[in-house]
Amino acid sequence: MKKSLVSFLAGAGVALLLAGCGLADVGASAAIQGVSAAEQAKQAREAEAKVKQRIDDAQAAAANARSQAETAGE
Hints:
Layout: H1 2-21, H2 26-73
């Protein structure tokens, strides 16, 4: 009984010491950074898709303008 009480108190003391120096938040910090990195990657993919769509739209508009110019020149 005394050993389990001593173990509990030692564990509680270590937990309090770690909480005081900020190491207790390391896990939460890492999780937040992981979410942040995932969100940044998602935003980068969305931005890339938008740029590709704008390029495709610009190429289609240029092809349409060439076609109209050829038709007008005939």
